[in-house]
Design brief:
The protein has two helices and no strands. It has one domain. By secondary structure, the chain is mostly helical.
Length: 42
Amino acid sequence: MKKSKSTGSKAAMTALALGAAYLLRNEKSRGKLMDQLKSMGK
């Protein structure tokens, strides 16, 4: 296994966890993000 890949995914997971914690505290930004994700999905 390559070290760089596992390190990258770990960093991504950390970023996701931080982002999730931030969004849980911020109702407004969560709504904005959900709108962006919906428009991207179309």
